[in-house]
Design brief:
single chain; 133 residues; alpha+beta; five-stranded antiparallel beta sheet; 3 helices; 8 strands; 25% helix; globular
């Protein structure tokens, strides 16, 4: 059975693994999901990720990040914004700020999947994929 929103599935898997205090989470791979994983790594929300080749299909194994104890979560919230039934777009003047700039908005632009901060610097808008804080 095909999934209607694979990115929402990825974010839900990360949220559930983080809530259950798992060290790793495995997600079916795609170009968009790899780009989101790279953003999470660059912004410091995860320790790292690797793409595992299982014959034909690829899987992303993500290492989640915690504070000194597992009770101190680095990812306190993650939310899908643009959904298949309602796409959310933002131009350069209306790019969202998550928690007044403390969080990160993930934007899909014509220059790739980037954060809201990079989109402001490059002066581009696009589809608002998710918020993470």
């Amino acid at each position: 059975m095909t999934m209607s929103d694979p990115v929402a599935d990825m974010l839900t898997r990360i949220r559930n693994a983080n809530t259950a205090k798992h060290d790793t989470v495995e997600i079916p791979s795609s170009k968009m999901k790899k780009a989101i994983a790279e953003i999470l790594l660059e912004e410091g929300y995860i320790k790292g990720y690797e793409v595992i080749q299982d014959g034909v299909k690829e899987t992303i194994r993500m290492k989640l990040k915690y504070g000194k104890t597992k009770n101190e979560k680095v990812i306190s919230g993650i939310k899908k914004i643009s959904k298949p039934g309602l796409r959310v777009y933002a131009d350069t003047d209306n790019l969202p700020k998550v928690l007044g700039g403390l969080g990160t908005a993930i934007i899909s632009t014509n220059k790739g999947v980037i954060t809201d901060k990079v989109a402001r610097k490059q002066n581009v808008g696009g589809e608002v994929i998710a918020f993470i804080w």
